[in-house]
Design brief:
signal, PhnD, single chain, alpha/beta, 43% helix, Phosphate/phosphite/phosphonate ABC transporter substrate-binding protein, 19% strand
Length: 300
């Protein structure tokens, strides 16, 4: 009888010990998972797919090296197939840092827990513009010439190759689907080339990207006429996953805000980065409302 009680007692003690060990193991595993989520050994950094993806990744190897050295982390650069894919990846928590356009950031913010922390600065300004261009050979030199024509735009979620070109045209009395036919080509460089080659009579794209294409010799300014320029647009924001470790987030901010290397900044057509916050993009939200855009069409 005593033997049985002792055996039962021993068994109970062993089971209790096993449960305790399993509890410790589970606790340690959960802690490791949390640590890896909030302070991962590798950071996935997404770059905006506004030009050729392979070129974007190649041009930003300097940024990857800078972040690796500044943060002591492995850096993986990614370029999604389009803006919508980038927004979706952010909403699923697959991106730690992401370089959005202003509109794509506003759209991503509706689905994701992310925060902007820096935006590029060019010529001392944290803003830029988009332009409407026309095919010179076709005589597309002013707004009136666009009536009834095909207008090339970039990605549907692009700020300077969709939102502000449409807003600029609307302010001139030209409405998409009524006064012109809009075609989406995905990237700014594709828009410029389509207009130059006569595949579209007009188009809208970022002025800094257009100037870069002219500088590279990709676009001949004699073949493309600048018809109009938009109002000022807040610059492209760098965003960060909000649930990262606060100390890591601060290190990331510092790595960008103190960046002065011209070779690293060149692909961004920037002189540096300045601190930005969500409210700086309220003008983008207002422009979307003016055009009656449905945010849901971009973020399904």
């Amino acid at each position: 009888m005593v033997s049985i009680n002792l055996k039962q007692g021993f068994t109970t003690i062993c089971l209790m010990g096993m449960v305790a060990l399993m509890g410790c193991s589970g606790s340690n595993s959960a802690a490791k998972d949390t640590q890896e989520k909030t302070n991962p050994s590798k950071l996935v950094v997404a770059l905006l797919p506004d030009e050729d993806a392979a070129t974007i990744v190649q041009d930003n190897q300097g940024l990857a090296k800078h972040l690796e050295e500044s943060l002591d982390k492995e850096i993986e650069l990614v370029v999604t197939t389009d803006y919508s894919s980038m927004i979706e990846a952010a909403s699923n928590g697959r991106l730690d840092l992401a370089y959005f356009g202003p509109l794509s950031y506003v759209l991503a913010k509706t689905k994701s827990d992310l925060e902007p922390f820096a935006a590029r600065v060019k010529n001392g300004s944290p803003t830029y513009t988009s332009i409407i261009v026309g095919n010179a050979a076709a005589g597309i030199n002013e707004f009136a010439d666009i009536e009834g024509q095909t207008v090339a735009l970039g990605d549907p979620a692009s700020t300077s190759s969709r939102l502000f070109p449409e807003l600029t045209l609307a302010n001139a009395g030209l409405i998409s689907g009524e006064n012109y036919e809009a075609v989406f080509l995905g990237a700014h460089d594709a828009v410029a080339l389509a207009v130059q080659n006569g595949n579209a009579q007009a188009g809208g794209l970022s002025r800094p990207i257009f100037e870069s294409l002219v500088e590279k010799g990709t676009i001949d300014p004699e073949k493309v006429t600048i018809i109009a320029e938009s109002e000022a647009i807040p610059q492209y924001p760098w965003t960060i996953r909000s649930d990262l470790d606060p100390a890591l987030k601060q290190d990331i901010r510092t790595a960008f805000l103190e960046l002065e290397d011209e070779a690293i900044l060149k692909p961004f057509k920037a002189d540096g980065f300045a601190a930005m916050e969500d409210k700086d993009y309220d003008g983008i939200r207002k422009a979307g409302k003016v055009l009656g855009l449905n945010l849901g069409e971009f973020v399904q």
